[in-house]
Design goal:
This protein is of the alpha+beta class and 448 residues long. The protein folds into three domains: 160 residues, no CATH class; 82 residues, SH3 type barrels; 82 residues, Alpha-Beta Plaits. Helix content is 59%, strand content 13%. The protein is built from 15 helices and ten strands. A five-stranded antiparallel beta sheet has the order 6-5-4-3-7. A three-stranded antiparallel beta sheet has the order 8-10-9, with helices on one face. It starts with a helix and ends with a helix.
Length: 448
C-alpha cells in the first residue's frame, strides 16, 4: 500500500464518520487548545527575549529572536503531535489532527523561508524589490500546492511521474525528481549559509572589545567560508565529483586574468583596507571628488556619505591606489580658518585679542588648543586678518561652526565700534563728457 493511502482513507473517514462522531469534538478541542497555547507561549517568549530596543544577550535570547516568526506554528505542531499521542492512547480518532499537522507544518516552512530570505536579501528585515515579493508569493503557492498533494494522496503519483521522466543532459540521463532534489538541496544549504553569515555579522558588530575593521574582516571571511562549505556539500549531495572543480578553477583563473581584473582588484583592495586599518567606519575622508563619512566598508566598494546626505559608492581600488585625505586617521582634530578686514585706524593688538576671545565663545571650538588670529596683509580697503581655530568633530561639518565663529566675531566688532570696511571706489572723468558735449553742440546750431 502506498504511503499516502491512509490520508485518502482519512478524508473519507472525516466525511463519512467523524463528522457525526463525538471524537470530532475532542479533535477540534485539541486543535483549538494547541493553537491558543502555541501562539500564546510564542508571544510571551518574544515579549520576554525579543525586545526590539534592547541588545540580545545569551544563546536563548538570540535563538528566540532568530526564530520568532516560526516559533508560534512550530509550537502548534509540537502540541498537535502531543495531542495525537494522547487521543490515540484513549482510542479516539485522530484523522482531523493528522490533517492539521501538515497545515501548520507548511506554515512553519513558509514563515521560516520568508524570515531567512528577508534577513539575507532585505534591509532591516524588509524586502522592497517587487521581484523578491513575487518570488515569496510563488514559493508560498508551491508550499500550499505540495500540502494539497500530500493530503489528497496525489503526492506519490506526482513523484513517480517525475522520477520516471528522464531528461537527456549531455551523455547522462537525469530524472526530473533528481533535478528538483538537487536544486532544492543547493538552495536550502546556500540560504542557510547566508543566513548564518548575516547572523554572525550582526553578533560581531555588537562586540565592543574588537576593532571595527577586524569585526568586518572576520564576518566577511566567515560568510565566504560558509558559502564555500555550502557549495561543496551541495555538490556532494547532488553527486557531482569535486575533482571537476579543478577545471572550473582553471577557467576562473583565466577569466580573472582576462576580464575580471577590476573586480578581483576591488575585492583584494577591500581586504587590504580592512586589514591595514587605514580606513574605519566613521572616518571623514576625501578621495578624488568625493568627501564625507565612511558608513560601510564592503569587500568590493566603500560607501561615503556626504554632509548633505548623498551616498557615493567608491570602488576599493581607488582607496588603495589613489591619495586619500583622512581627517580621523590618527586623531579627529581639524583646523579651520576664516578671514575678516578692519579699518586702518584700528588697534591691531586689541582686535587680535578680540577675535580670539570671540572664537572661544563657540561651543565646538576647542579650548585646550586656543584659537589664533594673525595680520595677513594690508589690503586695498583695510587690514586683512585671519582667525584659525580647532575642532574635534569633523563629522558634524565645517560650515556650521564657521558660521558660528563669524557671527561671534561680527557681534564683538559691533559691540566695540570697530568698522569693517567695504570696497569704495571713486570715478574721475577727465575732459568733457561726450553726452554733454553733444547736447551743447545741438543748442548752438542756428535755426533757419
Amino acid at each position: 500500500m502506498s504511503r499516502q493511502q491512509p490520508l485518502l482513507n482519512l478524508i473519507d473517514d472525516l466525511i463519512a464518520g467523524d463528522i457525526h462522531d463525538v471524537s470530532l469534538m475532542w479533535q477540534l478541542a485539541a486543535i483549538i487548545l494547541s493553537v491558543a497555547i502555541g501562539f500564546g507561549v510564542a508571544r510571551l517568549l518574544k515579549k520576554r527575549f525579543g525586545r526590539p530596543h534592547e541588545v540580545q544577550t545569551g544563546v536563548l535570547g538570540f535563538g528566540v529572536e532568530s526564530f520568532g516568526r516560526v516559533m508560534a506554528p512550530l509550537a502548534v505542531v509540537g502540541l498537535l503531535f502531543l495531542s495525537r499521542i494522547l487521543l490515540e492512547k484513549y482510542r479516539i480518532h485522530v484523522n482531523l489532527v493528522l490533517v492539521a499537522i501538515p497545515i501548520f507544518s507548511s506554515l512553519v516552512v513558509i514563515r521560516f523561508f520568508f524570515y531567512v530570505l528577508r534577513r539575507v536579501f532585505g534591509r532591516n528585515g524588509r524586502v522592497f524589490s517587487p521581484a523578491m515579493l513575487a518570488f515569496e508569493k510563488v514559493f508560498q503557492l508551491l508550499v500550499w500546492l505540495a500540502f494539497v498533494l500530500y493530503v489528497t494522496g496525489l503526492w506519490n503519483d506526482v513523484f513517480l511521474f517525475m522520477e520516471n521522466t528522464v531528461l537527456p543532459i549531455g551523455k547522462y540521463k537525469v530524472s526530473i525528481a533528481d533535478i528538483l532534489q538537487a536544486t532544492l538541496s543547493v538552495i536550502v544549504l546556500l540560504m542557510l549559509a547566508l543566513w548564518a553569515g548575516a547572523a554572525l555579522e550582526e553578533s560581531l558588530m555588537k562586540v565592543q572589545g574588537m576593532h571595527t575593521n577586524l569585526r568586518v574582516v572576520v564576518s566577511r571571511t566567515a560568510r565566504a567560508v560558509l558559502i564555500l562549505v555550502a557549495v561543496l556539500m551541495s555538490l556532494s549531495l547532488v553527486g557531482i565529483d569535486l575533482t571537476v572543480l579543478s577545471v572550473f578553477g582553471g577557467a576562473l583563473g583565466v577569466g580573472l586574468g582576462l576580464g575580471l581584473q577590476k573586480i578581483a582588484s576591488n575585492y583584494v583592495s577591500g581586504f587590504v583596507i580592512l586589514l591595514d586599518r587605514s580606513l574605519t567606519i566613521g572616518d571623514m575622508i576625501t578621495v578624488d571628488k568625493y568627501s564625507g563619512k565612511v558608513t560601510q566598508i564592503n569587500t568590493r566598494y566603500t560607501v561615503i556619505q556626504s554632509l548633505d546626505g548623498m551616498e557615493s559608492i567608491v570602488p576599493n581600488e581607488m582607496l588603495v591606489s589613489g591619495a586619500v585625505q583622512n581627517s580621523s586617521l590618527s586623531n579627529s582634530l581639524v583646523n579651520i580658518s576664516t578671514k575678516v578686514s578692519v579699518a586702518y585706524d584700528t588697534d591691531v593688538d586689541f582686535v587680535i585679542q578680540l577675535l580670539t576671545d570671540a572664537a572661544l565663545t563657540v561651543p565646538r571650538v576647542l579650548k585646550d588648543k586656543a584659537p589664533s588670529a594673525n595680520l595677513t596683509s594690508f589690503g586695498a580697503d583695510g587690514l586683512d586678518l585671519s582667525v584659525s581655530f580647532w575642532i574635534n568633530d569633523p563629522e558634524n561639518g565645517r560650515g556650521g561652526v564657521t558660521s558660528d565663529v563669524n557671527r561671534a566675531i561680527w557681534r564683538a566688532l559691533k559691540e566695540n565700534d570697530i568698522s569693517v570696511p567695504f570696497p569704495q571706489r571713486e570715478m574721475r572723468i577727465l575732459g568733457p563728457v561726450p553726452g554733454a558735449l553733444a547736447e551743447q553742440e545741438s543748442t548752438t546750431v542756428p535755426k533757419e
